[in-house]
Amino acid sequence: MYDRTTGQVTLIDFGCGEITTDPHQTFSSYMGTPDYIPPEFFHHNEYEAEAATVWSVGCIAFMMVFGYKPFYSKKDIMKYNITMDNGTGSMCKLIHYSNLYSICFVK
Which CATH number fits domain 32-107: 1.10.150.120, 1.10.1060.10, 1.10.10.10, 1.10.510.10? Predict the structure, then answer.
């Protein structure tokens, strides 16, 4: 959910997440949606809460704009190999692909 008045983004997790007050706290297990697993989890077997949230928002934003998932495998996520199908999604012509990548995904 996005609150336009505050600019705050809230992800609903349905019970798979953990409550933390430290955005830099690292976690060594991932219980969320596999499509949103941040690449650092595959590379280092851990991730930070805040960075993983930004990654998840980027994945969701990509799906909202283009209508399909940006990644289809663990290998795609690890190599940042985004699936791009030219011509799909209602906003494709308005957003330059490399700009979308830099906005939505944080390495």
Answer: 1.10.510.10
